[in-house]
Design a protein that fits this description.
Layout (H helix, E strand, L loop, with lengths): L4 H23 L7 H21 L15 H4 L1 H9 L3 H14 L5 H14 L6 H12 L7 H7 L5 H12 L4 H13 L3 H11 L5 H11 L4 H15 L7 H8 L14 H4 L2 H4 L2
Length: 276
Amino acid sequence: MDVDPRGLVLLHFSLSCIKILSFDLVERGRYRDNHMHHGLLWSRFSFVMIALLCATGCQQLAPFNWNSINPTTSYPEWQNDDKYMTTWNDKHRDLSNLRKNAAGMSHNKQVLHATALSSQIKQEQVPVVRREMVRALVAFPVVEAESGLEFALTDEDADIRVIACQGWGKRQTDRAFKLLLETWRSDTEVDVRVAAIQAIGNFNGEQVYAELVTALADREPAVQFAGIQGFRKFSGEDWGEDPETWIAWTKGERPEVIYDGKENIADMLNPANLFR
């Protein structure tokens, strides 16, 4: 709905009169003695203001109807953005669509897009854009995506390194394991180390076992828990949430699992814990 301009003028004029009248009453010292009269006057003035607005045909009290905004006509600078640059919303939409459609593309198209993304990610200056590029690269199983994913492991943004670790965890190759191992041992961010050891848990072998044992003894609880998750997947065993219990198990012991409030219901009902 539209607002009658006359109503807006009267609204502004009425509010200004009220403000001046209130200030005058206070300045003359009559506010305290005539408080009730002032309140009555305020009510009467408000009533007059509303009546005037209605009389002038104001169709709504809101000073502006935001639902009527048309960005293409109200803000020419938005149009200029679309003319001279690719906006963040456009990039986010395109990269999201690319990620969703990657699996259904032909091999040649996957190679084409993965090669382009791997090149662009090294030049992109905006972290949130690089993040979406890495997410898109993860969806491409072709070798050409690995250049960008390897570069992402050294990105200054920890969130990007986490996504890269998750991507490498889906690639069961020697190169993937080597890069994850290097990241797990060298990165200083807890979230990145957690992502790396979780990805390492997707592999098999004696070295995986050794790294998971190292994770159990880590001083960071999040890393310890990631090691426990890795051992559950690696061994099929479930010894609760206590890292010490798992460490005892890795030494060949058969520890008693006692519910201490940390285990969840699934742990409590696990046959290995019920019949021991």
